[in-house]
Amino acid sequence: MSSTSQLALIARRSVSRTFRQPVLVVPVIAFPLILLAVNASGLSSVTELPGFPTKSYINFAIVVCFVQGALFAAISAGTELASDIQTGFTDRLALTPAKRWVVLAGATAGGASIAVFGSVIYLVVGLIFGVEIDTGVVGALVLLALAIYTAIAFAGIGAWLAVATGSPQAVQGMFPLLFVLLFLSTMSLPLDFIQKEWFATIVEWNPLTYLIDGMRGLVIGGWDASTLLPAIAVATGIMFITFTGASRSLRKRVQRT
Amino acid sequence: MISSTLSVSLAVLRRVMIQTIKNPAIIIPSLAFPLVFLIAFAGGLSIVADVPGFSFKGGYTAFQFVFVFTQTAAFGGIFTGYRIAEDYESGFARRLLIAAPHSAGILLGFVLAGLARFFLTGLILWGIALVAGMNVLGSPLEILAMWLLAANVSIASTLWVAGLAFRFQSVDIGSFMQMPVFILLFLAPVYVPLALLTGWLKLAATYNPVTAILTANRGFISGEESKALLAFGLAVGLAALMALWAVRQFHRAHRSVA
């Protein structure tokens, strides 16, 4: 059996297992949209500040949904993989000719697929509620592609946590730490609107800032390589580091068992 | 009977507090969340104070601190609810129900534990905010009133999640415990005063009891008392309503053990 067929089999199992559990799907869809609704209305008055890049706050805030959805996906993917490790399913897979990257990519496909599903919903809901994408239809498709790429990269975080800890509870326990990063980014305001220098420094060092700004550029700024390329680079970096880490940890775990 | 109920409550309180102190993983999330919100909102959104029409005597840090403080009170209760659900999953709650001479003390004990956790995290939060230079213009009596109002929120929140924990007896409903509280908190004037809200959120915030609690506490911290009686009335009413719910679920759980 080719690696692609192995991947398809493991991914299909992961996707169907994930979508059979509403508790894994509903928060990914509902929570970012609730936060968007609250923030778009609660912070709408900041668009009156001189120099604010858009007159409609929902245009500014919509992209946060994609990153938030990807964070949820990371935890879903990690929880599912950790539960496979806990039940011994991953050990049994290790006895087959399946390669480590196939096991990891396949097992995290469920979490990543929720993010894909969520991204489409965020975009549709956003458009219904008046989001205007400056880069047009092509920009919307690029935005969707970047959101999916980010979700896959974040699934790597979940995979690494899962393999390193082998505990679904430990993976879920990491969620607050990841979620915190979102609030320490340009989620609510552009960098040049952050008055406190120390906070601006944290925001500048936060990789999520570049992902948010890259996606946001497509919505409110027009085509701009200076925001889009760093976003792609950050997502690629996260993907490379986390999947490499997860693969190494999986090798050690399999050797131990 | 009263002393027996109280001794059960104190035993439950003692157990929860020992678990909390011995296991930092329990206390860290309930402290980390409000702290991050304080940093993110007071630090990152300070420019919101420049929005035309925004006026708050204590400054934006104090404005946001009140929200975070109220959130701490509510989440102190939620994390106590997790404890109850875990006790059911491990079978400890059933043994406790059988062993306690006056089972009503168990519920009281968890409420006290929620309050103790809130007091602990609230105190740390106050310390950090004061060190960070937050303006407190209210009198000591007004600050005490602020604590009392938030304590009512903590009681209401503990009773809400306790009722859920007694009913479902599983930690799987964790997000169902958090979500309504989280939504209720965010459907209030979090970033700007009520007058600056627009659209559906303004409508929701106008009828949300949390709005009155936030407005009163913002009044206390800035020394400009506002809607205090209404806020206390709503907070006590909310706690009473949640007490009815929790007691009902507690008796249901008790009957299933007996």
Give structural notes.
The complex is a heterodimer of chains A (257) and B (258). Chain A has helices at residues 3-19, 22-42, 57-87, 89-94, 100-107, 109-128, 136-165, 168-173, 175-183, 197-205, 207-221, 225-256. Chain A is an all-alpha fold and 257 residues long. Chain A has one domain. Chain A is elongated. The model of chain A has no long low-confidence stretch (mean pLDDT 87). Chain B is mainly alpha-helical and 258 residues long. Chain B is built from 10 helices and no strands. Chain B starts with a helix and ends with a helix. The model of chain B has no long low-confidence stretch (mean pLDDT 87). The A-B interface holds A 23, 27, 34-35, 37-38, 41-46, 48-49, 173, 176, 180, 183-184, 188-189, 193-196, 198-199, 203 and B 25, 29, 32-33, 36-37, 39-40, 43-48, 50-54, 172, 175, 183, 186-187, 189-192, 196-202.
Order of helices and strands of chain A: HHHHHHHHHHHH
Number of helices of chain B: 10
What integer is the average pLDDT of chain A? 87
CA gyration radius of chain A, whole angstroms: 19 Å
| Tally of individual domains of chain A | 1
Mean pLDDT of chain B: 87
Helix content range of chain B = over 70%
Low-confidence stretches of chain A are: none
Please provide the ordered H/E string of secondary-structure elements of chain B.
Answer: HHHHHHHHHH
**Low-confidence parts of chain B, pLDDT < 50 over ≥5 residues?**
none
Distance between the termini of chain B: 20 Å
CA-based shape of chain A: elongated
- Oligomeric composition of the shown chains: heterodimer
CA-based shape of chain B: elongated
Task: Profile the largest sheet of chain A.
Answer: none
In total, the number of strands of chain B is 0
Characterize this entry briefly.
The complex is a heterodimer of chains A (257) and B (258). By secondary structure, chain A is mainly α.
